[in-house]
Amino acid sequence: MKKILVELVKFPNFIAITILVVLSISLLRMQSLANPELSPPECRVKKWDIPVSLTDEKQNISTQKQKAVLIQRTPITCCQGDASCLDEVIYGEIPDKKALLTAIDRSLEYLKTQGAVTAYQNYQVAGISRDRVFKSLQRFRKILLTTNSPTELHQAIEREFIYYQSIGKDNKGAVLFTAYYEPLYAASRVPTAEYRYPVYRLPPDFNSWSKPHPTRLQLEGADGLQAAKGKLRGLELFWLRDRLEPYMVQIQGSAKLQLTDGTQTTIGYAGNTAYNYKSIGRELANDGKLPLQGMTMPIILDYFQKHPQELNIYIPRDRSFVFFQENHGEPAQGSINVPLTAERSIATDKSLMPPGALALIRASIPLVNSTGNMEERIISRYVLDQDTGGAIKGAGRVDYFLGTGKIAGDRAGVTVSNGQLFYLLLK
Predict the structure, then answer these.
(1) Helix axes 114-121, 97-111, angle to 10 degrees
(2) What is the helix (H) or strand (E) element at residue 281, kind and residue range?
């Protein structure tokens, strides 16, 4: 989905405060897995950082125009007892190989397009080309089909591939991971007493709108019900029941809708006004309504459930506005115009990272256990870089697509952790 926004909790100061806590927890977990006091250096947590020698080399070879954002290194050897080094779910009790193959095939189709040719024409990292990315995906796909365990797959990667690690936000490889999802809401094609709050299609004359564009408040009013009086009249696409729901769709960039006639459809990003997103979670903290430290999406949603009248205060503070198109059941799409795959698609800054490429991520991600409870685990996942976002900027940010519906939303709302990002290319 061509989303330009991220979850309400994704704002810089929140990240700066919260990530210290998350990183501390993650490091403790990683240390327990790697057993640093007993294991050799190559098995310790620090092995996931970019080696200092490579960081120094990067600084020496970087040009005056732009420094390298990906550092070539050898694959990281898995150590006994460090299951977080492996993508275990590919061969788990419920195999996830099919989803990964689907995501790979979608990237391969993208890489055949003229858009991919254009995107890679002036790619800044030496040695990474569209042709090499394409051949790397083809080879990885063959290996995936012929291996029978995560260890066997990882060993094949070690033999045939090179890692290109993101320098992260600290030049040592630390990448901030958040997550996004596709909401599922009840909706109507016509306004009713129950369904009152619209999402809007892109105005046909949008390109001729003068700048600065109208703000959210000017477009839809404080209560979200005044758009029929202005520039959005007649552009209503669907109506939803709750004041917050259309806004959440704008944040995520897409939605699946359960319609009143029993059918389902989907909507996706079509355009946006020229304003930067302002987090209403941050605004709540600024006003002393909620503590900044530890703020998550569930906490924000709970606050507005208890104080629904305040939505008319805080939503208008975000001047940005997103328009949609009906996609008639098609899945959420990424910025490279291919459908996203749950748990196998990521969003990064496409001015820096190779579109459609195969990547390995390692981070602490909330999972639902066998009892239905949420627990965080440090995991590795092979993913495809198929999306971007206006708030996903720099080498130190990844947004992880978790799928559709409430469980995906619950997980996305509490995903904030430091981890690593690697791109895999054939030697």
Answers:
(1) 80
(2) helix 280-286
